[in-house]
Write a structure and sequence with these properties.
A hairpin with a 6-residue loop joins strand 12 (293-300) and strand 13 (307-314). The radius of gyration is 20 Å and the shape is globular. Helix 4 runs parallel beside helix 6 and helix 4 crosses helix 9 (318-334). The strands form two sheets. It has a seven-stranded mixed sheet, with helices on both faces. The longest helix is centred in the middle third of the chain and has 17 residues, at 128-144. It folds into two domains: 4-126 and 321-334, NAD(P)-binding Rossmann-like Domain (Rossmann fold, 3-Layer(aba) Sandwich); 130-316, Dihydrodipicolinate Reductase, domain 2 (2-Layer Sandwich), CATH 3.30.360. The protein has helices at 13-24, 76-86, 109-112, 128-144, 162-176, 210-223, 257-266, 284-287, 318-334, and strands at 4-9, 29-36, 40-44, 47-53, 64-67, 90-93, 122-124, 146-155, 229-236, 243-251, 270-272, 293-300, 307-314. By secondary structure, the chain is α/β, with parallel strands linked by helices.
Length: 339
């Protein structure tokens, strides 16, 4: 098997997970370069890496470059993404800078791998919340075609980065000690609270925060359905890792809950966890660290025609970011799109 030179740009939570996933899946890498803002040595998941400063020249001879930008962070792919492509590198970007760029496929391999055929050297990972939703709905969309989606997310603090994990931990300890719970990362205390804000407001959709806009726009591009009706409310909850979603979906033709369960149970990358009589359904604590997207609470919505409700949970750092990016590279190799 041919082996490739790989670069991982950024070593925050997503970058560290990318390095971990590359090793776990035995990606055919002859060399892995780690690029960041400054040179240093870093111990990541039990392995020591020599971190090099990110420069345009650092992408010389690199076959795949994974840009590990955390949601909302700007910089690396804007600076180095297209210059890396010019050097013959395939760029797979976890950030949101180029997701809606017409030149850039937005890909979840289990859902729309065929979009990779049109790549120009630059592919984007969708938003973490989008990934798990389109995964859960893809087999149902193929069967009955989606007419409208209403989704509410319950997003873990890991989606904001390490500082948010620390803040939640410190607030819980402060609460237990009877001390003041201070907050800096979020506009309000996150411990024992629910915050109906993920990211910032945008003029494009008045009243919608950026995360909600991503969940409206990105599925349309992934499914190739520019007029698909989608509404989203995104909420931050005091969970360490793994996002949960309540999804109400209306189809153009009838699909029963039993039919939906059969499709979900056999779809790649999904795991049906659905026995509500025994309180068995997807939980964030069970999804954390796992590759699959977990789906349950599948039921008929009796208030509208051709409508289902379901509950969906996935590790936002893993399938929602690092794993999906590595799977894109694997799929490109499998499809012969990278020689």
């Amino acid at each position: 098997m041919k082996k490739y030179t790989v670069a991982v740009v950024g070593i925050g939570m997503v970058g560290a997970e990318m390095l971990k996933v590359l090793r776990q899946r035995e990606f055919p890498a002859k060399k892995i370069k780690v690029l960041a803002t400054r040179a240093r040595k870093e111990m990541i998941a039990g392995c020591e890496y020599d971190v090099e400063p990110a420069t345009v020249e650092a992408f010389e001879g690199v076959d795949f470059a994974f840009f590990a930008g955390t949601e909302g962070s700007k910089g690396a792919s804007q600076l180095y993404g297209w210059p890396a492509v010019e050097k013959g590198c395939i760029v797979i970007d976890n950030g949101d800078d180029f997701r809606m760029d017409e030149r850039v496929p937005l890909v979840v391999p289990e859902v729309n791998a065929d979009h990779l055929k049109k790549h120009r050297g630059f592919i984007s990972n969708p938003n973490c919340s989008t990934i798990q939703m389109v995964m859960a709905l893809a087999p149902l969309h193929r069967k009955a075609r989606i007419k409208r989606i209403v989704v509410c997310t319950y997003q873990a603090v890991s989606g904001t980065g390490r500082a948010a994990l620390v803040e939640l931990d410190e607030q819980v300890k402060a609460y237990a000690a009877g001390k003041e719970m201070k907050h800096e990362v979020y506009p309000h205390r996150i411990a024992f609270n629910v915050i109906p804000q993920v990211s910032t407001l945008k003029d494009i959709f008045p009243g919608y925060y950026a995360e909600e806009i991503k969940m409206v726009r990105e599925p349309r591009k992934i499914y190739g359905e520019p007029n698909m009706a989608v509404s989203a409310t995104c909420v931050r909850v005091p969970v360490l890792n793994a996002h949960s979603e309540s999804i109400n979906v209306q189809f153009e033709k009838k699909i029963t809950a039993d039919e939906a369960k059969e499709l979900l149970a056999s779809a790649p990358g999904l795991k049906l966890v659905d026995d509500p009589a025994r309180s068995v359904y997807p939980l964030a604590i069970d999804a954390a660290g796992k590759d699959e997207v977990f789906v349950g609470r599948v039921r008929q919505d009796t208030s509208a025609e051709n409508c289902l409700d379901l509950w969906c949970v996935s590790d936002n750092i893993r399938k929602g970011a690092a794993l999906n990016a590595v799977q894109i590279a694997e799929k490109m190799i499998e499809m012969g799109l990278k020689k």
